[in-house]
UniProtKB/TrEMBL annotation:
The protein's name in its UniProt record: ELMO3 protein
PANTHER family reported for this sequence: ENGULFMENT AND CELL MOTILITY, ENGULFMENT AND CELL MOTILITY PROTEIN 3
Gene3D superfamilies: 6.10.250.810, Leucine-rich Repeat Variant (1.25.10.10), Pleckstrin-homology domain (PH domain)/Phosphotyrosine-binding domain (PTB) (2.30.29.30)
CDD domains, alphabetized: PH_ELMO1_CED-12
Domain (ELMO): residue spans on this chain: 307-480
Membrane spanning residue stretches: none
Keyword line: Apoptosis, Phagocytosis, SH3-binding
SUPFAM superfamilies registered for this protein in UniProt: ARM repeat (SSF48371), PH domain-like (SSF50729)
Species this chain originates from: Climacteris rufus (rufous treecreeper)
Length: 719
């Protein structure tokens, strides 16, 4: 007979004593349980002791987390957190260097536990840590333990970062700016500053002033990958906390220092694989840089602005320079106005008498004008060829440069998500972005020439404008999905994907769709589905058995600590536990925590998850909600919370957990995989029917013959 839900069988260890095997009643007060355990070992003063897990993070057991204890758990009787906090509080004040160092090392380890951290902070322990940093001159092991302990204590959010003194902050900054200091101290210092920057405007200004961009670039150029990562993290935190003007200045300075070229050569194309966190920071850097275009994109043209009018006139003058060489006095004002209107019409403006009106729509606003001017000034030959070539065509067949440029700029803004906030988890950046200065403008120059090429291939007229731009959008998105490493490669591939290739791709997709919609084929699909769904279920469970590395996300920083979760080979237990950075696939025995599949009650996703409700602030990013899921086990209030590294992992894990719960797989990935498998299977089955039309109804069965005596007698033939 299984034990009641409020009773768990556990072992309790103590150094120098025989372990106790007890049945822990969850309804019994923890103080009473501790007294019984201490009495069994004849220990007085039970209030001086506490229970903690013997393995893993060795968390203290409290009334709030005792329900997490599972059958078979091994606990250890140890000093209570308040007693341990007092002992370490005294130890870190010791005059003996060895005692002080050992106490700080122990403090750094125990501070990960929220119960201990609360007790230590209540003793005003942080003040003592401040004084060790502010007054000490040590830059060795003792300081590393001190900074580690400080970081862990601050992670629990009991104390605001705004309470830090200027002296303390400047001391941390000095470790970042020092040359002769251990890399681990610089990593911890950069991490502390990264956490500090987003919390307060004054802290941002102080860090920005004290830690120069040059210093951060020096750390970025080191060979130590972790130091490089922390420097990038602080740089991103500064960029995200800056005002638009400050961000623009910072990006301009970084451009002068050739940061893109360095990232392209030494980080993206490094011999070491790019980690998830660095990939995210590169995505944010790309997003921040592209979003500098947002202001111009959302600003309409002011017809009374002389600077903007000069830019507009420069387009006309560059294109029709020879025609405009006549002296100013040779034409009347009316004739000059008529000539300008004619030239603006040749440039492809909708409103040739007042071309400024074409830039009133925002987006793309003035960004379209900037792109056109950049194209005319940096590739004048291509610009002149585009305009003059279309000027000589029939009116209906000319490709309007201005109208095409305005629409193309809008398409590029949508594809590159300009003006959208940075995702908290995305890692999708374009390697070619870091290999090219003026990326957006150079991309426009390639794509506007693509518009003209596609226009000619389609033999388009003015009525086909929207169709042409739709084809161009498809050409750009299909090429970008291949992740070209340079703009030259992008240019080669996008030009190779001409209109006839797009038509072939569309026709293939359409034929496939028509082929799969025939009634007999649909019936065959339904017949094949159960077998293929079972194949997908097995793949999902196999993926869960291989396991995945997850990151805990805290309220202040994007990513916190790493943990790993995997399913046992017999599909009966989920094993999980914290792991160190760099661990790829830890063995199942090294994961101390476990949840029996039989105890799993429900799967929650998105807004239903408790950890998304806790963080449901205005800053909460929607993509975190799209990656969040939780397993409810035992009693409903106890959940194991996940935030998947990618949408792909989210789909595989939620599908796998639904299979374990005996439910249908509901992710969009299931449908995609099913469609791919069905498509492959159908193609194999219908291989012999190529170019044969499949009727909607089966052919009629012929009537039976009137005489069945049609057996041929071979014996007569032989004679």
């Amino acid at each position: 007979m299984p034990p009641p839900k409020d009773v768990v069988k556990i072992a309790i260890q103590m150094v120098g004593a025989i372990p106790q095997l007890i049945e822990l009643q969850q309804t019994k007060p923890l103080a009473s349980v501790l007294k019984d355990v201490c009495d069994a070992w004849s220990l007085p003063n039970a209030e001086r002791y506490a229970l903690q897990y013997a393995d893993g993070r060795q968390t203290y057991i409290t009334e709030s987390n005792r329900r997490d204890i599972k059958n078979g758990s091994i606990l250890r009787l140890t000093t209570s957190p308040d007693q341990e906090a007092e002992r370490l509080y005294s130890g870190i004040q010791s005059k003996n260097v060895d005692v002080k160092t050992d106490s700080l090392k122990k403090l750094a380890s125990l501070s990960q536990d929220v119960t201990f951290a609360q007790e230590f902070i209540n003793l005003n322990g942080l003040k003592q840590i401040y004084s060790i940093v502010e007054e000490g001159n040590d830059t060795g092991e003792m300081l590393a333990h001190t900074l580690k302990a400080f970081t862990e204590l601050m992670e629990h959010d009991f104390v605001s970062w705004e309470n830090l003194s200027t002296v303390f902050i400047k001391k941390i900054v000095s470790y970042v700016n020092m040359n002769a200091v251990d890399a681990s101290i610089q990593q911890l210092s950069l991490s502390i500053l990264e956490n500090m920057v987003p919390t307060n405007r004054l802290l941002f200004e102080l860090v920005k002033k004290e830690v120069t961009l040059d210093r951060l670039l020096t750390h970025l150029q080191t060979t130590n990958a972790q130091l490089q990562l922390k420097a990038m993290a602080l740089l991103i935190a500064l960029l995200l906390s800056a005002t638009d003007a400050e961000r623009r200045d910072m990006m301009d300075y970084l451009r002068e220092k050739n940061i893109r070229q360095f990232i392209h050569k030494n980080i993206i194309h490094s011999s070491e694989p790019l980690g998830d966190e660095m990939a995210h920071y590169l995505y944010v850097l790309q997003s921040v840089s592209l979003n500098l275009c947002e202001h111009r994109m959302k600003t309409s043209m002011d017809p009374y602005s002389q600077d903007q009018r000069d830019l507009l006139q420069s387009l006309r003058q560059t294109a029709f320079e020879s025609e405009s060489e006549a002296p100013a006095g040779s034409f009347s004002t009316e004739r000059r106005r008529s000539l300008c209107a004619k030239e603006f019409r040749k440039l492809g403006f909708m409103n040739n008498s007042n071309p400024a009106e074409d830039f009133r729509r925002a987006p793309p606003g003035l960004l379209a004008l900037d792109n056109m001017v950049y194209f005319s000034r940096n590739t004048p030959n291509a610009y002149s060829r585009f305009v003059l070539e279309n000027s000589s065509r029939e009116d209906r067949h000319e490709c309007p440069f201005a109208r095409s440029s305005i629409q193309l700029t809008l398409i590029l803004c949508e594809i590159l998500h300009i003006g959208e906030p940075c995702s908290e988890t995305a890692q999708a950046f374009y390697p070619m972005f870091f290999g090219q200065d003026h990326f957006f403008e150079e991309l426009f120059c390639i794509c506007i020439q693509l518009v003209n090429k596609t226009w000619k291939e389609m033999r388009a007229t003015q009525e086909d404008f929207d169709k042409v731009m739709q084809v161009v959008r498809e050409q750009i998105t299909r090429t970008l999905s291949l992740k070209p490493t340079s703009l030259e490669l992008f240019k080669t591939r996008v030009n190779a994907l001409n209109y006839s290739e797009i038509l072939k791709l569309r026709q293939t997709e359409r034929l496939h769709q028509e082929e799969t919609l025939a009634v007999p084929v649909l019936e065959l699909r339904e017949k094949l589905k159960p077998e293929l769904l079972e194949l997908i279920r097995q793949q999902r469970l196999l993926h869960l058995c291989e396991g995945t590395l997850f990151r805990k996300i805290s309220s202040r920083r994007r990513q916190d600590k790493l943990w790993y979760c995997r399913l046992s080979p017999n599909h009966k237990v989920l094993h999980y536990g914290d792991v160190e950075e760099g661990v790829q696939s830890p063995p199942i025995e090294s994961l101390p925590e476990k949840i029996p599949v039989a105890d799993m009650k429900m799967l929650l996703v998105g807004k239903e998850c408790p950890h998304t409700k806790e963080k449901s602030s205005g800053k909460q990013n929607k993509d975190v909600l799209e990656l969040a899921f939780s397993i409810v086990h035992d009693v409903e209030e106890y959940c194991l919370n996940f935030i998947a590294p990618t949408r792909y992992e989210f789909c595989l894990w939620t599908d796998g957990l639904n299979v374990l719960l005996g439910k249908e797989m509901t992710s969009e990935r299931t449908q995609t995989d099913l469609d791919v498998l069905l498509s492959m299977e159908l193609k194999l089955r219908l291989l012999d029917l190529e170019n044969i039309s499949i009727p909607d109804k089966p052919p009629p069965i012929p009537k039976p013959p009137s005489n069945l005596n049609f057996c041929y007698d071979f014996s007569h033939a032989e004679q």
